[in-house]
Specification:
Blueprint: E1 2-8, H1 16-28, E2 37-43, E3 48-54, E4 68-69, E5 75-83, H2 86-92, H3 105-116, H4 118-122, E6 127-135, E7 140-145, E8 154-158, E9 161-165, H5 168-171, H6 183-192, E10 205-207, E11 212-217, E12 222-226, H7 230-239, H8 246-263, E13 271-274, H9 279-290, E14 297-303, H10 311-321, E15 324-330, H11 332-338, H12 342-345, H13 355-366, E16 371-373, H14 378-382, H15 386-399, H16 403-415, H17 418-425, H18 437-446, H19 452-459, H20 465-471, H21 487-490, H22 494-504, H23 506-520, E17 525-527, H24 533-541, H25 555-561, H26 567-570, H27 581-584, H28 590-596, H29 599-605, H30 610-622, H31 628-644
Parallel strand pairs: 13-14, 13-16, 14-15, 16-17
Antiparallel strand pairs: 1-3, 1-9, 2-3, 4-5, 5-6, 6-7, 7-11, 8-9, 8-10, 11-12
Helix pairs in contact: 2-3, 6-31, 7-24, 8-25, 9-10, 9-25, 13-23, 15-19, 16-18, 17-18, 22-23
Length: 646
Amino acid sequence: MCGIVGFWNAKSGQPAEVLQAQISRMSDQILTRGPDAGGAWVDAQSGVTLGHRRLSIIDLTEAGSQPMTSSCGRYVIVYNGEIYNSEELRTELAPHNRTYRGYSDTETILESCAAIGVRKTVEKLIGMFAFALWDKQEKTLSLVRDRLGIKPLYWADFAGTLLFASELKAIVKHPAFVKEVNYDGVASFLRHSYVPAPYSIYKDVYKLQPGEILTRTADGAITKETFWSMAQVYRKGKEQPFVGSDGEAVAALDRLLRDSVKRRMVADVPLGAFLSGGIDSSLVAGVMQAQSSEKIKTYSIGFSESDFNEAPHARSVADHLGTDHTELYVTPEIAQGVIPHLSQIFDEPFADSSQIPTYLVSKMTRDHVTVALSGDGGDELFCGYSRYRTAAAMGTRLGSIPTVLRKMGAGLIKAVPPQGWDQLANLVPQAKRPRYVGSKLHKLAAVLGGDENDLFRRLLSQWDGRDLTDLIVKGQEIQTVLLDEGLRAQVPDFYDRMQYIDTLMYMPDDILTKVDRASMAVSLEARVPLLDHRMVEFAWSLPPHLKIRNGEAKWILKQALDQYVPRAMTERPKMGFGVPVGEWIKGPLRDWAEDLLSEEKLLKHNLVQAEVVHQRWAEHLSGAHNWQAGLWNVLMLQSWADEWLS
C-alpha cells in the first residue's frame, strides 16, 4: 500500500532538477500513505516524472522499491495497492522468460505488462490497485484503477501537462494546476455527502473510474477503455445465474470467502482485522481465525453513548472466536478532536460522519499492526441496507394510495417535528427500535407524491429538490446514475437497481474513500475481502431469495456466518458506524460550527446561500427540526474551503 504521483508534459523542456523538485513537493503531500521510503524517476527529455511513497508490506527489501523499471528496461511503474495472486501470475509468465530481482507484487505487475500488455495483465489481477505505467518506446502513459475503486487515482490535463496522484492534495502542489471550484461538484456533494466520480471538487480534475484504463500519447491524445464494469457483471449474472440448491450456494460462498480471506492474510508485517460485531466483520474475522494456527488480532472502538456503541457486541464475538482482541472506548472529547483535521485528511469535501470512528479505529489499530482486514462491501452485495427494504416496501404501498391521500399523509407527518416522532419511538423496546425515526419519516413525507425511485433517491440525499436549488449559489447537479430515469429499463428489478446504484456510487465514492483516507492517514493498509471481484460476480449471479428471504436481509451471508459465530451474537438492528454530530454541534462543537456558518465565512467562500443555512441552523438549535445530516454537509464544505481555498 502506497501513494503515487506524477506528471507529463512532452513540450516542457524543463531540466531534471526542476522536475525533481516538483515531484518532491507533490510526493511530500502524501507522506502518510508511504512513510517507509520515497522515490522518483525523471526523464527530462520526454518530460515524464513519476513519484512514489512506500508503505512496505510485501518484500521489504530494496528489490521492492519504486519507481521500478522492467527487466527489459522499456517500462517504468509506480503502483499503489496489493494483488493477491502474484505467485500464480509469475507461474503463468514463465514461458516469457522474465527476470525478477525480488518477490514484490509490483514487479509481477510490471513484468506482466511488459510481457502481455496492460489490459491482459489487469484482467488477471486479484486485488486492489492503482498504477501508472510509462512506455519509453511508444511514449505512452497508462493510468489504471481496480475494478471496484478500492484504491483512488485522480488525474487532470492542464494546458498539455497531465497530472495524476493518489490524492488531490498532491495535484494541487504542481505549478500547472489551476485552482477553480467545480460548482456542479458542490451541488452534488451537498446531496450525497461526497463528490461523485468521475468529477472532483476542482474544475478539470477527475477521478479515474473503477475498472478503467486511461492512456495518453505524446501528441496529447487521451483515450479510455473499461476492462471491467458493473453493467457487464449485472448482465452476466442475469444471463448465467447460479444454479443449485441453497446449501450448494452457501458452500460456494464459503469457498470463495475462504480463498479471498486467505489471500489477504499474506503479509511480511503484522496483520489484524476490524471487528464491529456485525455480520460482515464477524464473518471476515471468523474465516480468518478458522484459517490461522495462532490467535488473530481484532480491533474495535466503543462510545459512551449506547446508541452508537458496538464494542460489547464485538467483544462477545471476539471471545467466541478466541481472538486477541483490543478495544478502545472513545470519549466525546477525543472524537471531537479529530473533526478540525478532517479537511486535511479528506482533501475534498466529504461528510459521512462515520469518517470519525473509522479514523479512530484505524489509528488505534496502527499502534499494533500494519495491515487490517475490513468487512466493507457486504451490504451492497447482499442487500444489507435497511433503506432497500424501506424503499421497496413503501414504494409498493405508495403506488396503491391515491395522490390526494398521500399529500394528506405528508402533511400529518410534517405536523410533528422529528424529535416528536423520536420520543414516540422510545415507547418501542430498544432492541426493536429503528434509529432516527423522525428524520426518516420526514424524508418519507418529502416523497409521498413520487414513486419508489423518488423514495430511494430521497433516502440517499441530505439536500434534495427545491431545498438544494435554494441552497446552492451556482452550478447544477452532476447527472449521476441515481438521477438516471433510463436505468429502470436497464435494471428492471428495484432491489437490483438500488444495489447497482450503490455499487457504482456510494461504495467507491463514500465507503471505500472513507476507509482509504482514514487508514492511509495513519499509514495502515486496509484490505476488503468481500470486494474480491470474484465475490462480487458471484453475488450478482444469485437469485433474489438467497439475498432476502421472508424479510431477512443478507440471508446467504448469515448462513455462512453460522459456521463461525452463533446467530444470537450478531442478530440485532443494524447500527451503522456513526457519531452524534447533531448533538455535538449544538453543544461542545457549537463555537466551531458557528464560526464556519458565520455570515463572514459563508460570504467569503460563496458556496452556499447564507440565509438558507442560517434558517436550518436556527431550527436545529431550537429543536424544531433535526437537520444534522444536511448541516454536517455544509460544515464539511465550509471546513474544506477554509483549508484549501483560503
